[in-house]
Amino acid sequence: MTPVQFREAVRFGDTRRVRIATIDLQGRLRGKTFPASSVVDQLLDEVMHMEGCGYLLATDLGMVPDESWWRDGYPDVGLAPDLRSARVVPWVPHTVLVLADPLDATGQRLPVAPATVLREQIAALAEIGLELRVGLEAEFVVYHAEDDDQARQQGAGARTRRPATGPGRDYAFDIPMEVAQFTARLMSSLSYADLPVEAIKAEGAPGQLEVTFPYGDALEACEQHVLFKEAARTIAARHGMAATFMAAPDDSTASGLHLHLSLWREGKPVLAHPQWPDELSPLGEHVVAGLLDALPDLMPFLAPYVNSYKRYRDHSFAPTRFAWGRDNRSCAVRVVGHGPGLHLELRLPGADANPYLLVAAAAAASRWGIEYHLAPPAPVSGDAYRATAAPLVPVSLGEAVDTFENSSLAVKLFGEQVITHYTLAADAELRFHDQHVSDLEVARGFDQA
Question: Quick check: 203 pLDDT over 80?
């Protein structure tokens, strides 16, 4: 919305509430709701001052403050609304959403905030004359909501949910009517919010859908993804369904968040070779090499939870080795497209990843390869799951965190403060699982152990 549209919408009653929200460590919206009439003038004059508890950027997935972060007593952080982000969110009636940047005590953007982490990496690429453009491709699963309610009553691990579609529906049009109505409402709502969808389709696993978004500015793409997830969950509930973005919601389902990325210089893409446009340019090869070299040290940015690593299975369409290849979906990095449209698809991130952090990791790794002129290994033309020369993807969050927190490269790319903060977040996730008994453990061991 433009400032004039915002004022007029409040004046004539179309907008009654304003949500001011920031992005937490997990990539979720967190904030407050205000009567629109009480804040519109402050927002338009850019004088609104807002604060929130600092634990917005220091809690685990269940919003539990970790003991390690109590050292400062959780003071407030400033939240600076950015009116340029204001938009109608039609899945919340009569409401405009405005995103806000968390600020530190000096009034600067908080260094560990996900959007700040990404901005730093975009700026570092700009210093070497490059612009990052991305497109996100999100998979998620929808279930019948009444089964979800039953599962919640029986415990978070209860496996009583029924997927909203049957198996083997990849690319199919004959999906249940309620799912078709949900996807239609989702597309129209996102379009009305100026978040256009490129395509939506049924995926291979029961209840699984895939939404792809157009290429564009990296920060805008991440903002769009966060709002898309909120819209999907809200609209699914209104259609009698529940949506999940877990990477592995059951034993046979793997949901990814594939990142399509390209680099541009002076308005032109630079990953394709100028003479052989279906081949990578030397710079493109440096990018591939940087991704393969640096991402093993940055996996908590791409797979942040214990469940995330249950997606990496042979022949699951989720990679198990740090390999690359041309139009090869068994690889972690897939070269895809033709001519000026040649770009890279990063297939490592799961649906549960914070988009700001995964894009930041990809940007940092790309820069690493470019600045040090790294050369990639030979591409894999066959089954990358059998490419034994390529390093394995970590099999657990514990393994990934050990590498992450001890990586001099991670600190070089992101700074010690960011790596320490996100190590604490990953450690909190590990401790939660270490301290709780799952329903699967009971089912397996109650009578037999």
Answer: yes
